[in-house]
Design goal:
The complex is a heterodimer of chains A (102) and B (164). In chain A, 75% of the residues lie in helices and 0% in strands. With 102 residues, chain A is an all-alpha fold. Chain A has one domain: Orthogonal Bundle (Helix Hairpins), CATH 1.10.287.3510. Chain B folds into two domains: 1-86, NADH-ubiquinone/plastoquinone oxidoreductase chain 6, subunit NuoJ (Four Helix Bundle (Hemerythrin (Met), subunit A), Up-down Bundle); 123-164. In chain B, helix 1 runs antiparallel to helix 2 and helix 2 (28-48) packs antiparallel against helix 3 (52-76). The longest helix of chain B has 25 residues, at 52-76. Classes of the chains: A mainly alpha (102), B mainly alpha (164). At the A-B interface, helix 1, helix 2 and helix 3 of A face helix 1, helix 2, helix 3, helix 4 and helix 5 of B.
């Protein structure tokens, strides 16, 4: 029998993978991919809680849909920033984009 | 092992192997393409959780739009994402330590929580229930989200546009 702990376990592992990607990658696009993995992990939790804890008004589905929408917005703005940084600095590695460092 | 458990373990393996390739691939195009099985596996988990509408939106937006967008940007910034560039910083051991501790903490907590029965039945028609939830109790969140979309649309155009 697959219970809530199974889904939350997969989601915890996926969140760990995404965090590892965010912490170790140098490329801004790869960091965005790590963030997408972490957002997906959070969404699995929302949808699993809807089924196993509070199914009546599908509140978790609403939260998951809002998170998906905001993830799309975040990807669009982030990738626009990446293109702009590449145009001006010829790099998208976050450790070389340090114009504002004192 | 019944069919649900079999489907769950297959989808979980797909999600985790895909996620591992996303964070580990040296070639960023491979990493971006590995996002597709990961996100499709998450969509499959949503099917197992009776969330048909979220599944459809996940496939449309994540697999259809965000992955393609990421691939486009990788191809547009080829000089910085090519194979000759070092892709990892020097924090790998520290990051492994932090992520390992965090995941172990999560697993310990969620294995200790006693899970009671759900508070009620799942609505029979899922998209209808989601729509009613969106337009009655959560209409404010809905409107604010649409404002955020508008702002990010304008912001992305302004930021990515060529000056002059």
């Amino acid at each position: 029998m697959i219970g809530p702990a199974h889904y939350l376990g997969v989601s915890a592992l996926l969140f760990g993978l995404g965090l590892y990607g965010v912490l170790t990658r140098r490329n801004a696009v790869a960091i965005l991919m790590g963030i997408e993995l972490m957002l997906n992990a959070a969404n699995i939790n929302f949808v699993a809680f809807t089924k196993f804890v509070d199914p009546t008004f599908v509140r978790g589905h609403v939260a998951a849909l809002i998170v998906i929408t905001l993830a799309a917005c975040e990807a669009v703005v982030g990738l626009a920033l990446v293109i702009n940084a590449y145009r001006h600095l010829e790099t998208v590695n976050v450790d070389q984009v340090n114009l504002m460092k004192g | 092992m019944n069919a649900e458990a079999l489907a769950f373990y297959a989808l979980a393996a797909m999600v985790l192997v895909g996620g591992f390739l996303v964070v580990q691939s040296r070639n960023l195009v491979h990493a971006a393409i590995s996002l597709v099985p990961t996100l499709l596996g998450v969509a499959g988990l949503y099917v197992l959780l009776n969330a048909e509408f979220v599944t459809a939106i996940q496939i449309l937006i994540y697999v259809g739009a965000i992955t393609v967008l990421i691939l486009f940007v990788i191809l547009l910034t080829e000089g910085a994402t090519g194979l000759r560039v070092r892709q990892r910083n020097e924090q790998v051991p520290l990051a492994l330590l932090v992520c390992g501790i965090l995941v172990v903490l999560f697993l310990v907590v969620l294995l200790r929580v006693p899970w009671g029965p759900p508070t009620g039945p799942m609505p029979a028609y899922n998209p209808g229930a989601v729509g009613r939830s969106f337009l009655m109790p959560y209409v404010l969140a809905f409107e604010v989200t649409s404002l955020v979309i508008l702002a990010s649309l304008v912001g992305a155009i302004v930021v990515a546009r060529r000056e002059g």
